[in-house]
Records
---
Amino acid sequence: MIDVGFAYGVFAVGTFWIFKLTSHKFILFVIVNLIMDALMAYLVLPLLGKLEIAEYKNISPTHYLVVIFTLSFIIYGYHKWQEKIFK
């Protein structure tokens, strides 16, 4: 499904930084995530495919964008839930 180095590397670190810098401004969080996820789906991963490092299989770039963009809302909701618990 996904390379572990990617899931726990670039994707996780990028998500944490975006979240850290925009978490209290929901609209900014959504916009930045959409831009970064679109760059990943339409520029970075196709480039990695041309370099024969990674490629799309059984999923289109648009479907990939929908999946990772949806994940950002799950992460945001989880964080807000955790904030309430630890206050």
Note: The chain has a mean pLDDT of 82.
---
Amino acid sequence: MSAELVQKACDGDRNAFGALVEAHYGFIHSVAWRWCGTELDAEDIVQEVCIRLGRSIRTFRGQSAFRTWLYTLTLNVVRDHQRQSARRRRNEDRIANDPIFFAHLPSEEDDRGDWLWAAVRRLPEKQRDAMLLVHSEGLSHAAAAEILGCSENTVSWHLHEARKRLKDLLKKEAV
């Protein structure tokens, strides 16, 4: 990989940036796959690396080899992805182990999260948004209220109503 191509990409040359991504795509994918172990996660990570690369290519100063810099960027995205996945699993477990839902969810661990989030996506918009912000994203009621443009009490009410509706949905699905 020529230093000239890297420099052109750093200077904003879109064609050079495209060539740089194309030249390193396999490297990024193989690093992502080795760290996460699944094709789907590796593809998600590669996409995010390409987005971040586009945002940060101009900060590359050549103090290390471009590939070393790219490796660091890729590992940062992998770590972020792993943290997000762990947070999502914790939140799914928190909901799935709620006594309201526990008896109605599938016994297979992998199926629980998929089934639960499919049911959440079927909720009315405000209930769904509150559930996703608080339980999937891990936000506080106050932060969710700010995003939704309502009070914390309203978020709490939407969550309460969502739990009741989910309980009914999950009972019907389990039958």
Note: The domain at 3-83 is CATH 1.10.1740.10 (Rna Polymerase Sigma Factor; Chain: A).
